[in-house]
Design a protein that fits this description.
4 helices, about 30% helix, disordered N terminus, alpha+beta
Length: about 170
């Protein structure tokens, strides 16, 4: 099944339909439905990140996840994809998985390099002058206990955002 997001990110479809209801249109973006979520194979780009964020919102809302947890999952997803782009450059091939589990929302990002691990910086989250360096601190806060695993693709950063269906 080849599904990708519609060209208009403001489409009403994105706010109400699960990812499995979307139609193919974007190059460099392959969407595979999975139970309670999706796996998106993407070439990292601003447009594809926006599309994956919108898909995550649509799918999680369709699964009954509350707005606060959806926002947290989208932020974790953005930070992990951003880290991969900073480490490997634009258009790095990634697999982004978002799905609901009994523990909350799983957000996993696979990238092609098993040797380069995410590194926390000492930048405080409340530092007004910092322009970078707070991403993994945010991930620690929103998805405590995240892990890095080797995968067939390279490595996988695995996160679980606490959530209950219908909760905020």
């Amino acid at each position: 099944m080849h599904l990708t997001p519609p060209p208009n990110p403001d489409s009403a479809l994105l706010s109400t339909a699960p990812a499995s209801a979307l139609t193919p249109t974007t190059p460099g973006f392959y969407l595979r439905a999975r139970p309670h979520g999706f796996a998106a194979h993407v070439c990292a780009s601003p447009d594809n990140l926006c599309a994956v964020r919108q898909l995550a919102r649509a799918e999680l809302l369709a699964q009954g996840i509350g707005d606060d947890a959806v926002d947290s999952a989208q932020l974790v997803l953005s930070e992990l994809v951003g880290n991969s782009v900073r480490a490997y450059g634009d258009y790095v091939p990634l697999v982004v998985e978002v799905y609901v589990t009994g523990y909350g929302v799983a957000v996993n990002v696979h990238d092609p390099d098993p040797g380069t691990l995410p590194m926390r910086r000492a930048t405080p989250l409340d530092c007004a002058e910092a322009e970078a360096g707070r991403g993994l601190g945010l991930v620690d806060l929103l998805a405590p206990g995240w892990q890095v695993r080797r995968s067939a693709i390279g490595k996988q950063v695995c996160c679980w955002v606490p959530a209950e269906p219908g909760g905020n």
